[in-house]
Amino acid sequence: MNIYRYEENPLITPADVAPHRPDFEVLGAFNAGVAEYQGETLLLLRVAEKPISEDPNIVKAPVFNVETQQLDILEFRLDDPTYDFEDPRMIRTRDKMEGFAYLTSLSYIRIARSKDGHNFTVDEKPFLYPFNEYQTFGIEDARVTQIGDVYYVNFSAVSEMGVADAMISTKDFVSYEYEGNIFAPENKDVLIFPEKVNGKYYALHRPSLKSIGNLDIWIASSPDLHSWGDHRHLLGIRDGYWDSGRIGGGAVPIKTEKGWLELYHGATKEHRYCMGAVLLDLNDPMKVLARTETPILEPEADYEKNGFFGDVVFGCGTIVEGDVVKMYYGVADTSMACCEMSLAEILQQLEDESR
Length: 355
Ligand code: MAN
Hints:
InterPro entries: Glyco_hydro_beta-prop_sf (IPR023296), Mannoside_phosphorylase (IPR007184). By secondary structure, this protein is mostly beta strands. It is globular. It contains two helices and 26 strands. Residues 89, 103, 140, 156, 158, 163 line the site of alpha-D-mannopyranose.
């Protein structure tokens, strides 16, 4: 696979984003949803910010308080034996059975806009900031599906109740309507197909199983984008492969002559995230036609290997122009990058590796 990584990569880094309040610092601007709106490329960035701690022995956790509509900043002492601070993204109790966890940063969605797809300007204000009890720990990893002149933006809504998938709709990327939670916890990586197939909407989703089963991709259909049913297992992890630990939908499915092309992410058990491709039947997206054996994109560049959480390429959206697939992708849970690939080459790899 020939990958053309933009020379300007990383396109957006935390340094390009001013924190939304002075006592916070920006850790990441990554895993953005992608939209084309009025001749511009919009990236719906996941901005992760952390409360600044003056005391190195104190870790803080920001939590949105629904009553006051403000953030509460909780403090934990690093030497407190009750807690486990090993994962920099979380604070857990050592007694895992309690299921207690806080996040060390708050994510929300901010828009970056560009006329040429290379140079972006980040909006001053958040576009989506926590607003209800399902989002008290933040809003993460948006995906944008355009249907007619309406853009549906779905995202992970994180709270102590778990990670649900919520949706808003917008026509102008300024105001929006809340459409509610569309998948119950724990579920991530929801991708809504850009058009109905045989009279039904389709979505990929990834239940994050905790007792039995693997972190696999499922598919569901809906008459109205709100009620999702007919859930089926679509794609599983593969032992010994680059996608042996977990998989999840990445970019909004692309309609091609050969079928629906889904660029999905897969990680090893050691959390190395790559992107692969799968082809679904045009008339029945619940049918898998082909799947790549090898990744189409893997962390190789320095900005993909090193960062807040290294060895991660995580694509949430593409722009397709003829044979060119521009994939905008999060790198190392820190920044945004873009690469171009040939659609024909991806389809060829799918054909070659599925024989
Ligand atoms: C994982 C990571 C984090 C994220 C939480 C909650 O630990 O993806 O970045 O904040 O899940 O979704």
